[in-house]
Amino acid sequence: MYESQYIDPALWEACKAGDKGAYADIYKLYYPRLYNYGCKLTENVVLIEDSIQEIFVLFWMNRERMAAVREFRSYLFVSFRHCLLRLLSQRKQEDLLNEEQYPFALEISTEQQQLAREEQHEQLQALKNAMERLTPRQREAIFFRFYENMEYEEIAGILQISVKATYKLMARAIDVLRDAYHAMPLVPAVMTLATLAVALGSLQLSIAILGTPPVPNI
């Protein structure tokens, strides 16, 4: 989904050493990713932007303590998620951090639907309905795995569940989407891998729906 999933090691070391230009480059790299993720949790762009600003200030203050780039990505999403849900909880006067009451809008976008041919609309609607049947946590796990290309260990850390539970969460979500796919009429002639990938905006998710999800070795 993004051109670069990781920060250049030299840029990372420069930032840790106090280079504000390197810090700005990292901010520019991750801002759209965090903003995109935040928009799936809320439509309140002010809270999204406030959360991004807050966690990047904390990151700058604590940058020297971080040992590696990979640690940073997980840290950033964990911090942003916690901060945004906290602000949403304060606004709604209810606890969204410890209960699965938060929204997560992972769906087939209007732009992606327009890319598909008219005869695919029925199939796309079936996929959209299936996506809406997923729990917020299932949609969130799907987002991190197939749109952010995160490993199961990273997803487990962000969602604060075990790796085994993450595999189960993902497998159940894929089962729902796969059942919806196989229930579609004229699937072989209409919804090929390529068109499914266009509809979902993720080739990896399309392959997972058509194939077999990975089995955890734990």
TrEMBL record:
The keyword Transcription regulation applies. Keywords: Sigma factor, Transcription, Transcription regulation. InterPro entries: RNA_pol_sigma-70-like, RNA_pol_sigma-70_dom, RNA_pol_sigma70_r2, RNA_pol_sigma70_r4_t2, RNA_pol_sigma_r2, RNA_pol_sigma_r3/r4-like, WH-like_DNA-bd_sf. The keyword Transcription applies. Residues 125-173 form the RNA polymerase sigma factor 70 region 4 type domain. Residues 26-92 form the RNA polymerase sigma-70 region domain. Belongs to the sigma-70 factor family. ECF subfamily. This is RNA polymerase sigma factor.
